[in-house]
């Protein structure tokens, strides 16, 4: 039944995220490059497992039925559910990272693992918490988006591209600002699809991401040169 199925899916995604974290970073001393390679390898293995079990045809499930007219546009009720849940989740994330010890410990490990370790924080455990949290958030996103667009084994490629572009646009270490970046990117892609070609949406995300990364890299280099002087 709905409700129980969605909750089970989010919990299962969190468990999978934790398992991937153990495989990628469970051994102490694992370099970030090695962890990234293992994570990508597990992702490709997951593609094969998903095709073997469920096939390669897109799948979907029912969400909130019906639509409403807003300023002349027909908007599905499921879209309002996505907006409401996303706003609540980002509000909770802001409280988590800003007000709780675990959230501050995660931020400290992301900023400076060595300094966090000297303060008694275990970066390995915090990394596993991050993998599990990321899995749960991914599962929640899947539950919300599947009624709007059918999901197949490789649908995560486009979602990851857009998500990373939004995070780069808004800031990799500020969830609420990243949400603003995601909204800006979503509006830009919708306008490209409406006034141009829908196939160019991914190009917009990649172009924005590369442009912002180049600008930030040049600023960082300029600041380092100024500090060296």
The major beta sheet can be summarized as: 2 strands, antiparallel
Uncertain segments of ≥5 residues (pLDDT<50)? none
* Tally of separate helices: 9
SSE ordering: HHEEHHHHHHH
The proportion of residues in beta strands is under 5%
Categorize the overall geometry.
Answer: globular
Report mean pLDDT, rounded to a whole number: 84
Radius of gyration: 20 Å
Q: Percent of residues in helical segments?
A: over 70%
Computed structural class: mainly alpha
Side-by-side strand order of the widest sheet:
1-2
N→C terminal distance: 65 Å
- Number of separate domains: 2
Q: Please, what is the oligomeric state?
A: single chain
Number of strands: 2
What does this structure look like?
The protein is mainly alpha-helical. The chain has two domains: 8-55 and 74-151, no CATH class; 152-228. The chain has helices at 4-25, 32-54, 77-99, 101-111, 113-118, 123-145, 156-170, 175-195, 201-228; strands at 67-70, 73-76. Strand 1 and strand 2 form a beta hairpin. It is globular and about 55 Å long.
């Amino acid at each position: 039944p709905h409700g129980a199925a969605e909750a089970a899916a989010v919990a299962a995604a969190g468990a999978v995220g934790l398992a991937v974290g153990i495989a990628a970073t469970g051994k102490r001393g694992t370099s970030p490059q090695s962890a990234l390679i293992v994570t990508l390898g597990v992702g490709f293995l997951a593609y094969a497992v998903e095709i073997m079990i469920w096939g390669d045809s897109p799948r979907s499930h029912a969400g909130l039925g019906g639509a409403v007219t807003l300023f002349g546009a027909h908007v599905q009720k499921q879209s309002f559910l996505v907006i409401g849940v996303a706003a609540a989740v980002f509000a909770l994330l802001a409280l988590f990272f800003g007000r709780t010890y675990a959230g501050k410990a995660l931020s400290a490990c992301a900023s400076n693992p060595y300094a966090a370790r000297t303060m008694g924080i275990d970066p390995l455990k915090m990394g596993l918490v991050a993998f599990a949290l990321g899995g749960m958030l991914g599962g929640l996103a899947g539950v919300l988006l599947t009624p709007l667009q059918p999901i197949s084994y490789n649908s995560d490629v486009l979602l990851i591209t857009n998500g990373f572009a939004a995070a780069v646009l808004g800031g990799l270490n500020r969830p609420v600002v990243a949400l603003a970046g995601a909204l800006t990117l979503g509006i830009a892609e919708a306008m490209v699809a409406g006034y141009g070609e829908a196939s160019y949406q991914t190009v917009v995300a990649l172009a924005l991401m590369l442009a912002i990364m180049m600008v930030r890299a040049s600023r960082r280099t300029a600041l380092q040169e100024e500090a060296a002087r």
